[in-house]
Amino acid sequence: MTEVATLRILWGQRLRRDRWQLAIWVLGIGALALFSATAIHQTYGDDSSRAEILQVALATPAILMLRGLARGAGIGAFTFFQIFSFLALLAGMMSTFLAVRHSRAEEETGSAELIASTPAGRLTPAVATVLHGTAANVLVALAVFAGFTAAGLDPAGALVAGAATGAVGLAFLGVGLLVAQLMGTSRGANGFSAALVVLAYVLRGIGDATGTPDAGGTVMTAGPASWFSPIGWGQQTFAFTGDRWWPLLLPLALAAVSLGAAWVLLERRDSGASVWGALPGRVAARRGLNSPFALALRLQAGSIIGWSLGGLAGGLLTGSLGSAIAAVDLADSSATAVLRAIIQSQGASLTQIMISVLFSIVGVLAAACGLQAVLRLRQEEAAGTAELLLAAPVSRIRWLTGYLLLGTASVVLVMFLAGLGAWVSLTGSGDTSMDVWAVWETAAAQLPAALIYLAVPALVFVLWPAATIAAGWALLGAGVVMGIFGGMVGLDQGIRDLSPFTHTPVPNGSTTDWSGAWWMLAIAVLAAVVAVIGMRRRETGTA
Amino acid sequence: METIIQTVDLHKHFGRVRALDGLDLDVQRGEIHGFLGPNGAGKSTTLRILLGLAKATSGTASVLGLDPWTQSVELHRRLAYVPGDVRLWPNLSGGETIDLLSRLRGGTSGRTQEGRDYRQRKARLCGAFDFDPGKKGRAYSKGNRQKVALIAALATDAELYLFDEPTSGLDPLMEAVFRSEVLAAVERGATVLLSSHILSEVEVLCHRVSIIRAGRIVDGGTLDSLRHLTRTEVSFAANGLDTRALAGLGAVHELTSDGGRVRFGADSDRIAEVLPALGALGVQGLTITPPSLEELFLRHYGDASVAAGAAGGEPEHARHRHLLGARGRD
Ligand SMILES: Nc1ncnc2c1ncn2[C@@H]1O[C@H](COP(=O)(O)OP(=O)(O)O)[C@@H](O)[C@H]1O
Ligand SMILES: [Mg+2]
Predict the structure, then answer these.
(1) Is 3.30.470.20 the CATH number for B230-327?
(2) Assessment of whether the complete model's pTM goes beyond 0.90
(3) Which of A298, A361, B16, B186 has the fewest CB atoms lying closer than 10 Å?
(4) pLDDT, mean of residues B243-259
(5) What's the CATH fold of domain B3-225?
(6) Do residues A226 and A357 both lie within one domain?
(7) How many helices (H) and strands (E) does chain A have?
């Protein structure tokens, strides 16, 4: 069999395996390009409204972190500013996962060994993976081009934007393949290379936030951090305004260098071996690992840290947006209508409503964090690890309450960090138009709804274990849709009232109505108590 | 003798499945008790009830004088359990898991003499079982996961050890290590209940066995007493001898003659009645095959298969029954 024939077989196998997954990635990225461009058309139809919002954005580092490099108020440039960094992030994720899936993961499961023992050898599969990944990124580039063009943007600029997205994806294809040579497990390789993609996103965010705006306040020159990020390189194409192609040489060069390095490593190492061995674990446990609660903390630490960082970021964003809004008069814009639809409160000021809206989203993060603690109970039970614990002198009730306490603590932690972030950024902005203590009140107001998502799933776990995980996420999803987005899509008030989030108080000085919070707190406590009592009589098992 | 485990008419139903159907088990202090039965007989279910992880549908169970369902924490302080299929926390190392489980049971803390003893014992067991405690849980094979639970159980002193098919993932060398550790634990005064579906494992280790099938105990006692229930195979060269005298003896069953040899099965506890008759015949080429528990065991398994496979009418089972020629005791 010739090399080419082998290659064709291996590539075909990759295509077959990935066809649905790739279709979802490519169509998803294309649809995101299309919908965001269309939405911008509708929301900010003319240059002046876009210029106005850009001026707010350029004064608000937190917005720039999440958006991109502003290059003027033209519709194409504005769309590129809004969405490109996110499209590139997705392309990067798609590419690293693809690279690891067809290299380290195959070696881990042993299927690579089967292939390596055929005439295909050890290197041809890697070539097939590169071909496959390149094809995927060409498709992504075409999807972005098609999405932007279909939304009525300038095709030349759309082509540059598409190529930039694909080039970032290619760079991370190489990075993913290189990381797959270094790390011994696919889990490690996926985690590490995804972290590199996020790092690229954050670096360009810092570059965008620390750039220098021009006199008009709508065009930005990126700070130095952007130049260390493939996504930042993509932004340098100035699609729709400059249409520069040369910055794409940078991601392509990164792809070439990392692929070359991966090749060298691949040629030298044994199948299944890695450059960095698996991290050895501890031979003995730390002194603190001596109770069900300590174990729960250990198991949930990653999730708690993740949601807490989300809370902190949400808080920082809230503070800086709040002060930006105080500076600009948005009283009659369509954005205000959207905010008023989410938060129903008569007396509250626009800034307070803004903070409540953003904090209600942070409140969802907190609820998810608490929910995950309860879901862990079920995961432990289904996986069989709970049996080891419960066969030791640990009662079912102690086990359950450990997770309830941990969940409560993490809900409070997420909201505390959100409050801290908002407080710091509001105080730092020197904005005196609002009472910064209202931030703490708003943060506390989110706790009861979040605690409902701790206690009610715990009750489900006790009464109907097998349904815990599905019911937990379904309840949270339904609560978010009905309570937070319900107003925007015009849901009936009766339906909106079913969601805990609808009853979260909106502080407005002295007339705040806290009754919803007390009711929810009472329900949460009641559900938790019933769960604990029920746990006394419940069997545990994997079924 | 002091009773450590006692169940009376224990029933456990899962919907319409009767996992336990009137199980009476009794385990005495200081013994290694084999709990023997085919897959699905209800061994794990019994152990989970004895631990208070599951609640009996009806009947009573007492372990170390305690009610496992209501007094499980107190009970668990005094026993150690190794599940049949050990699952580990993927991101805890084996050493961490062993320490955690031992600490939960207490008596392993810090700089006390107890703590030093525990660490010494853990290190010795890791050595004996050839176990690397520094790997993450997700990286261990089935046998190594089993070792984590075994080391955690054996590293602390317990009055009672419950093992659910403990050697199912271990290689023969490790099985030998397990055996000597169990014997050492019994030396210390512990009691052991060992479930297994492999006779040889129970045969070398246990003082008494209980055979479980379809949720009830179908046979039990010391190994010797069980052996007496089986038959001794006797055969000799036919040489045209008149074997009618033999056929008349009550201890002789299924006398056949083929291929130039006469064969029969003799009740093992009445073999002495047969010997004079054999001597009178002046038999030659005599072979007497001692009774094996395998027969008894296969008989119980075989019955189950016959019942289960009745529709299929597999000849395999029929052959077993004939071969064993054993008389049902129940
Ligand atoms: N949680 C459960 N739900 C339903 N059936 C079960 C459950 N656990 C055990 N069983 C059934 O009970 C019987 C006994 O199982 P088990 O105690 O695991 O047997 P053994 O350990 O002897 O192999 C089997 O028929 C099994 O299918
Ligand atoms: Mg079992």
Answers:
(1) no
(2) no
(3) B16
(4) 85
(5) Rossmann fold (3.40.50)
(6) no
(7) 21, 2
